[in-house]
Amino acid sequence: MQSGDFLAYAPITKEIINSANLLKSLKINVLIRGDIGTGKKTLAKTISQSSLIIDAKELQSEISDNAFSTDFDTVIIDHIENITNIDMILNWMANCGLRIIATTKQNELSPKLEDFFAIKIFIPPLDERKEDIKPLANKFAQEAAHVLGDGKTKPQKLIINTVQNGYSLRQSVFFSYLFESINEGEIMMLLEKLIYERLEGENNYRDFLYLFETPLLRAAQKKYKSQLQMAKHLGLNRVTLRKKLELNDV
Fold first, then answer.
1. Could you tell me the residue ranges of all domains in the chain?
2. Rounded distance, CA 143 to CA 174, Å?
3. What pLDDT score was predicted for residue 3?
4. pLDDT for 113-150, tens place per residue?
5. Which residues pair with 32 in a beta bridge?
């Protein structure tokens, strides 16, 4: 199920989409909350496709300078929790004649702000709506294939990271496509750039050794399972291996 760019396959997100579709024709102020990457702005655009999206701090600055103007009848205020002059913003929202849709990652706002919004929608994190993960990953995969690949080649396995919901999922899918074509020389070039920018002080060799050792140990751990096999294939004795695993927090 999809409405606009917002994908909904889990029961909870299907309910959210149904609510959003009902709100399209109603001039009701809406507050959308959820963690980073849960799709708050996407849902807001689903409710009102013809709208202005503006960061809360930028809006506050423009209102303070009497410089805000828009031809849209709906304003989507992103990160409304960053408002500092609440009374000024509330007065403006109450008298501007515009429909207000706001997003926030906070569980609670100022009571005055909370009271302004007649409808509040909460978008759960992806790990609580697992049915949405695969369709969303496939959507990002199509985007990554177009941007980074030939539009046809697909990695053998997509990297799935939902720590920051859709934000980290999109990033991990793009990495999957990037790693499919990157070569050793390009990896070395990236490492060289990273190390060059951070070189300072003393003991640099020891400080940056983890950039090689940690991924090597993690890869060996995944491939060989037991420490006995790891030690054999890495050419280390088991005591040295255990020390390196501990030092690299593997």
1. 2-124, 130-181, 201-247
2. 8
3. 53
4. 999 999 999 999 999 999 999 999 999 998 888 887 66
5. 103, 121
